[in-house]
Design goal:
This protein is of the alpha/beta class and 261 residues long. The protein has 6 helices and 13 strands. It has a 9-stranded mixed sheet with strand order 11-10-9-12-8-1-6-7-13, with helices on both faces. The protein has a two-stranded antiparallel ribbon with strand order 2-5. β9 and β10 form a beta hairpin.
């Protein structure tokens, strides 16, 4: 008797990931306003990838690829040609290709719509973004994007684990942590804890020069908000030092001069 044995190789599921990248001023940059405080003077301003996008969302996506769970990591940003250096850095870190949507937007709804219009038919299994950008700190693009794409959303992730088409996400909540499980496709916003920051090496920098950067025309999306003006924070006031033995003076100053913020 001859026995025939058929070996069936299991095909592992490998994701296609999109990482949302935004350009922000470096935190050490001194901001100067112009045009009657309606615009920021960008002369001499150093721009960087938003840290939450780079250090956590992008790096976690690259870790998932390096572990064999993802096949492609694409980057997307909304901006004019001046944002290309920051998305090139994302490619230098390990992104496979990048997309720049040619629009100048400060409105999160408009930004989310531009990204959603591109991603809707691109077959992404997982979309990662930072929990917020450090310039406007509103943290709304991620949940808006999920709604526009009809995907589930998990915010403030500190740990992301993927098994086949299911994600297990640890996220911060008030007073503790919460662990959620959700089927893909999924949008997740990331924060500290998801990954460890890394810097691009020379090989990555050289490879980034030849990796694809696609420019896509903006779709007809109208913003819901507009910035009327900016206001710089007030200058720091002087500090009064009170001798440790003079508690009466300290109490008097707390009553008369101290301000509750």
């Amino acid at each position: 008797m001859i026995l025939g044995i058929a070996w069936i190789k299991k095909q592992n599921y490998r994701m296609k990931i999109l990482v949302c990248i935004s350009q922000v001023p470096d935190t050490s940059t001194k901001i100067i306003l112009k045009d009657n405080d309606t615009a920021i003077n960008t002369t001499g301003v150093t721009f960087v990838i938003n840290p939450y996008d780079e250090w956590y969302a992008l790096i976690r996506a690259l870790e998932l690829k390096e572990s064999g769970l993802a096949k492609d990591v694409h980057l997307i940003t909304v901006g004019k040609a001046d944002v290309e250096p920051i998305i090139r850095k994302g490619l230098a870190l390990g992104g496979d290709e990048a997309v720049r949507i040619d629009a100048d937007s400060n409105d999160p709804y408009e930004t989310a719509n531009h990204i959603a219009n591109y991603a809707a038919n691109a077959g992404y299994d997982l979309i990662l973004c930072g929990k917020e950008s450090i310039d406007y700190n509103n943290g709304t693009v991620g949940p808006m994007l999920a709604e526009l794409l009809d995907m589930d959303y998990i915010g403030f992730a500190t740990n992301i684990q993927i098994a086949e088409k299911n994600a297990t996400v640890t996220r911060e909540i008030e007073g503790g942590e919460e662990v959620d499980t959700c089927d893909l496709p999924l949008v997740i916003s990331c924060q500290k804890g998801v990954a460890e920051a890394r810097i691009p090496n020379m090989r990555g920098i050289m490879a980034a020069r030849t990796r694809p950067l696609k420019v896509v025309a903006a779709t007809g999306v109208s913003p819901l908000t507009a910035i009327l003006s900016y206001q710089l924070p007030p200058a720091k006031a002087g500090v009064k030092l009170v001798d440790a033995d003079n508690m009466d003076e300290l109490v008097a100053l707390l009553h008369t001069e101290a301000k509750v913020i």
